[in-house]
Design goal:
Layout lengths: L13 H4 L2 H12 L1 H22 L9 H4 L2 H14 L10 H6 L3 H13 L9 E6 L5 E6 L2 H19 L14
Antiparallel strand pairs: 1-2
InterPro entries: DNA/RNA_pol_sf, GrpII_Intron_Splice-Mob/Def
Organism: marine sediment metagenome
Protein name: Reverse transcriptase domain-containing protein
Length: 176
């Protein structure tokens, strides 16, 4: 029987042949929140930037709740994944997240630990990398979960500080 049959004796739609847990992940993937999270995070960053730019003496007292917003964590996940870094000390890779609990559940787990204020960063994996002169230097590789949270914090803080930086400063700044 051909896999591309569409007649009544053909194969079942993929969604109905998946296990229960896989269905939710498949539906979430079909909804593709990555593009909408990119837009909502960009809108949030714009608001933070404008507030900081228009009111330089304003103090941002409540930013922590923005770090664990779903859209911020989803965007952070996407950005960390694009970097294609290695796994940290826990050995978790993006492939193991995809084949295990899935992206949505992984992000939700991070969100809940941040919201409950129970999150603790893991130790950094230390790797020696060779230098040109024959020596080595130590490189620290945080686990994926830590990198996602660091990226979420960066997404929130960066627009606030960008408003204060000199337009003539270029080091370690986005799009400069």
């Amino acid at each position: 029987m051909s896999d591309n049959k569409t007649t009544s004796e053909g194969r079942d739609p993929a969604l109905f042949t998946l296990a229960k847990g896989q269905k939710a992940e498949m539906i979430a993937a079909m909804l593709d929140t990555s593009s909408s999270s990119k837009e909502t995070v960009r809108a949030l960053q714009r608001k933070l930037y404008l507030k900081a730019k228009q009111q330089p003496s304003f103090r941002f007292y409540s930013l922590y709740d923005k770090v664990y917003r779903r859209d911020v964590l989803q965007r952070a996940f996407d950005l960390v994944r694009q970097n294609k870094g290695k796994s940290g000390i826990d050995g978790v890779t993006f492939e193991s997240i995809d084949s295990g609990m899935g992206r949505t559940a992984y992000i939700e787990e991070i969100r809940e630990t941040l919201k409950a204020k129970t999150y603790r960063a893991m130790p950094v994996k230390r790797v020696e990398i060779p230098k040109r002169n024959g020596g080595t230097r130590l490189l620290g590789i945080p686990c994926i979960k830590d990198r996602i949270i660091q990226m979420a914090v960066k997404l929130i803080l960066e627009p606030i500080f960008e408003a204060d930086f000199s337009p003539h400063s270029y080091g370690f700044r986005p799009k400069r």
